[in-house]
Records
---
Amino acid sequence: RQMVLELRKAIADSQLTVVYQPKYDLHSLAVSGIEVLVRWKHATKGFISPDVFIPLAEDHGLTSAISKLVVAKAAEELGQAGILGQPLQHVSLNVSAAEFNNADEMTALTNFIHQHQQLSPFIRIEITETATLTDMRKSMEIIANLQASGITFSIDDFGTGYTSLAMLKDLTVDEIKIDRSFVAELEHDARSRTIINAIIAMAKSFDIHVVAEGVETANQLNILQQLGCHQAQGYYLGRPMPISELVEHIAQDK
Ligand code: G
Ligand code: G
Ligand code: MN
Ligand code: NA
């Protein structure tokens, strides 16, 4: 409807911008990665959440255009800021299920990423756990193609689906992000702590990097550190922010 037209126009006119949420290394307590998150700055409605417009984009075949815009914007801003590699080791992008399950679109995205040579070595792609479910064999192939080109792969919202364990068995993932619902209960619920502990132990034995998402308190951070989690992300550590704030945020680490 009206909103789809506006979204198409927003894509064409570059009304979409990106923000960056820091990911902290729990050993050094310094920023070691970021997640890139898209924002729609609407002329009259203010910022529209991706929770609203990504599903719309999925329904109208606009996700690959959005991904390209996000990559181009991140390449420009991060390149100019001079923080790629030092300190950023990973730049994570969210790719939606509709795009991930389309092999041609993933090939196009991979090629587009590699056109940005400063950025491409750091790119990590996040897929929500449920997005990989539709066809496990196809997912394996798509992930293998990404990895062959040097792009690493992460499972977002890990633990929320019904196939978490099957995924660890069959997919060669580089990273998992423990869903924030487990992190939220960490302090008061021994069972959540036990689950996180088990996820970390299992991931480590597969040589998979573990990130905890949704860290909102110092206490959660402490517990995650004690459990040996590699990296953490959340409002306590840093909200999604524009590039200028990210640069300041990183400078304050030192
Ligand atoms: O950043 P925020 O909390 O508003 O994100 C809401 C949802 O939108 C999250 O599930 C997030 O993964 C998703 N999202 C954010 N940026 C992008 C993007 O560039 N592409 C896709 N496909 N999803 C995104
Ligand atoms: O689904 P995904 O993990 O990609 O969603 C990313 C979004 O999660 C971020 O853009 C941000 O809006 C939200 N987020 C990040 N940190 C926190 C947090 O500590 N608490 C909550 N409730 N949401 C967070
Ligand atoms: Mn994510
Ligand atoms: Na997530």
---
Amino acid sequence: MFDAILIDKADDAQSVSLTQLDDAALPEGDVTVRIAASTLNYKDALAITGKSPVVRKFPMVPGIDFSGVVESSDSPDWKPGDRVVLNGWGVGETHWGGLAGKARVKGEWLVPLPSAFSMRQAMAIGTAGYTAMLCVMALERQGVTADKGPILVTGAAGGVGSVAVALLAKLGHEVHAVTGRPEESDYIKALGATEILDRAEFSEKGRPLGKERFAGAVDVAGGQVLANVLSMIRYRGAVAACGLAAGMGLPATVAPFILRNVTLAGVDSVMCPKPDRIEAWTRLAADLDPGLLESMTHEVPLSEAIPTCERLLAGQVRGRAVVPID
Ligand code: NDP
């Protein structure tokens, strides 16, 4: 038996509880992993609160990511004792996820955990941090180098934002950070940002083209915020867009694209091909300062995971929340 969070649905009403499950209940898969840690990402909070239809199958163990040790394997790629990490692939949405003592998954979904990281550090990074790295890689692929000008990061006090600020600053970029929490300014500056900008400045409808301020941006917000960010990108700059914290819409014009050659690069972590995942985790081992990672991380016991989700969606959780399991 192992502890697990379980989401169920009856008569259109979703319920969620901390419960105990038997190994026999685990879903199909060729690798069984003893989970060491999981995390609370924005998507986990949407799933657990039921605020968005993230969960596609009931009952569901949420948790879109985990780190752990292979317990048994029918896959030629993995053997008992291997240290692994999993992000996405529908885990926690259509296949039982990481907020549990064990998971059974497809071996092809797993990535070897770089030796630089402990299980806890892997989940301090989690899907939010790995997505931040994918965003940095997307900007690099568009030729956004440190000499081109400042980079903007939205949602800077959140998970993706905190890691993006730390990574970009370490890579030599001048980082300007947008936050709705001015009280977190010292925290964001300690991660490496040099300018703190008020979210309110980005939340109202702006002009199709504004002053060319930033060479690039990592955006977790979407909505009006992303539209305004696009209008401020310098000629031939790029925005890596990964989130919807401000909304799904994009009330923008084509002006930044056709007049300034701006690129809007979409970033998805869930179905991201394996070579990019391995590159992202390898780069995180090299480019993320472990001290800064620790400074943005706090622990949430499995027993507190459910109530923490409301706070996370309300934008009240700073940085990264690790859920230790083992
Ligand atoms: P967090 O909750 O940790 O951070 C989100 C941050 O966004 C908040 O901390 C807040 O930062 C900011 N924010 C909240 N509301 C608004 C708003 N109305 N307008 C502008 N900014 C706002 O979440 P994560 O970092 O885990 O995820 C961030 C986003 O990225 C989510 O939308 C998530 O779904 C998405 N995501 C997408 C992935 C993908 O594969 N595409 C993978 C991982 C995440 P502050 O207080 O500093 O303003």
